[in-house]
Amino acid sequence: MAVAAVVAVALIIWAAVGSGSSGPGTLPGFTIAVSQGTVASPDSIIESQPSLARLIPAQLHYVPFDAGVTAIAEMESGSVQAISGVGNPPATEAIGNNAGVTVVMGWGFDDDQLLVPKSITSASQLAGKSVGVLVGSSEDYELLGYLGLEHLTGKVKIVPFASEPAAGAAALSGAIDAAYVYGAPASNLIAQKGYHSLVNAEQIAKLGVPGLDVIAVATSVIKSDPTLVQDYVCAELQGSRDMTGPDAARYLAATAKVQGASGSQIVSATEGYPFIAASQQLYWLGSTPDDVHSPIVSAYVQTGQFLVSQGRLTSAPTAAQIAAHIDPSFIKKALAGACPS
């Protein structure tokens, strides 16, 4: 799920869960920005399972967000301590601006598809065509990267939209030739116009242009309370296992209330979603701190160049700068079993 649009973070707290045995009054507050909708997340699994939430020594609060850049700003202000599912551009921009943000775990890839008419069966046929995409987003970065790999830079008209539904609607009306979208806009193009997927975000990631959604925590919290962060990552890992394991349907259906969608919608939308598996966490984040050669660092280096071209950064952060904001030690310990029982 990409999270780099321009919709403001809702300030209404839609859940608050106390945990631990020492009493909620003695526990620190821990506010997590999460996305709502039909795709569940490890955080919605945690929120719907009090026994799992109690493993985190904090009073948990959840705020919904649509825009990664705004969630980052909330983190900088101190009102949000973690963001679940923030994409490349907001995270890289924050690092480029030296914000106190640290990536602690991979979340997933985007689920977008480049949907085109049946007559287009190869990338070369996109030359001279127009493609709609969410402006300034992970999707925008992925699409431009893919076109570059296919030697189509400057040969395809990229049409920016403020939302994916708007891009999908333009393709439905015939105003543009194709769209890079997911969810309902993608389903509508397939069902109503017979469009098909030429390539998707996960395939683009494997080609070397990964759009990664990650879990980021305020660097100040990592320094002041590393035990809290460790227990949070442990709960995230268990939540991700619950939502992709043999009893996934039961866990997913239980998130309906917190996701704001029906259980059947959530099960259908979440099953098969390209989450980053536990076995792939250290591949993407690297197995040691300050690893300048990890795939996420390479992805953010590319994203920094994209942000410079968009005018959102004056200079791209270096691999060393980016690596300093990636801390795989928490997920490494969680995978090794260093978690509360």
Secondary structure: elements and pairs:
Elements: E1 15-17, E2 29-34, H1 42-48, H2 50-53, E3 59-64, H3 68-77, E4 82-86, H4 88-96, E5 101-109, E6 113-116, E7 130-134, H5 138-149, E8 157-161, H6 164-173, E9 178-181, H7 183-193, E10 196-200, H8 201-206, E11 212-218, H9 219-224, H10 226-244, H11 248-253, H12 256-259, H13 263-270, H14 281-285, H15 295-309, H16 319-323, H17 329-335
Parallel strand pairs: 2-3, 2-4, 7-8, 7-9
Antiparallel strand pairs: 1-3, 4-11, 5-11, 6-9, 6-10
Binned, the helix content reads 40-55%
Name of the top-level CATH class of the largest domain = Alpha Beta
- Number of helical elements: 17
Element order, helices and strands? Answer: EEHHEHEHEEEHEHEHEHEHHHHHHHHH
Question: Any idea what the shape is?
Answer: globular
Largest sheet: 6 strands, mixed
Rg measurement, Å: 20 Å
Alpha-beta classification: alpha/beta
Strand numbers in spatial order across the main sheet: 1-3-2-4-11-5
Provide a descriptive summary of the structure in words.
There is one protein chain. This protein has 341 residues and is α/β, with parallel strands linked by helices. It folds into two domains: 220 residues, D-Maltodextrin-Binding Protein, domain 2 (3-Layer(aba) Sandwich), CATH 3.40.190.10; 94 residues, Periplasmic binding protein-like II (D-Maltodextrin-Binding Protein, domain 2, 3-Layer(aba) Sandwich). Helices cover 42% and strands 17% of the residues. It is built from 17 helices and eleven strands. A six-stranded mixed beta sheet has the order 1-3-2-4-11-5, sandwiched between helices. A five-stranded mixed beta sheet has the order 8-7-9-6-10, with helices on both faces. Helix 5 links the parallel strand 7 and strand 8. The radius of gyration is 20 Å and the shape is globular. The relative contact order is 0.17. The N terminus is likely disordered.
